Amino acid sequence: MKEEQDYVQDIAQIRSIMERSSKFLSLAGWAGIMAGVYALAGAYIAYAVFNFNPNQLIYDTKSASVAASLPKIVLLAVVVLILAIGTAILLSSRKASKRGEKLWNALVKRLLINMSVPLIIGGLLILIVMANGLIGWMAPFALLFYGIALYNASQFTYEEIRSLGFIQIGLGLFSAYFVEYGVLCWALGFGVAHSMYGVYMHYRYER
Asked: Which segments cross the bilayer (predicted)?
């Protein structure tokens, strides 16, 4: 009986070692929670302060209201992104230190490369459609390409990331058809879904 228990423990240890070598497991649940908080705050500011809530696809970028709001929206999005990335790096670095691991390694490099391709393409496409007055596509494209990036990243980290990616893709497709709900879907995807994912990951893997 004791030999069987030892055998099971050995298998579990081997599996843990293999998983650590093939998966990035230092992503902190609190990073997801804070990213969701930042996104919700950004969505509220965009909607309530900057009056950004496109209900159609095409807008005249030369109009005074659109020309005045777009730079503010872009700056707001950049601030939210910097806060989310900075928090993720800080909290994940702390988690990696506790696990006795390095935050930057070949596995993380592959993860970032697989995420960066759809993110860069999506970012450039958003700038293109924004310059051409297709303001209604901004939120759907952000959700769609971010969802694809998460799906790619799921090969190198927790499998739950794949589900989060599908949620983003689903919200992106929905908001592409119902443009008037773009900001709401953006808030649900980047805000609510991120926070719920972070809470789930924190209680499952970090407590």
From this structure: 24-50, 70-91, 111-131, 137-154
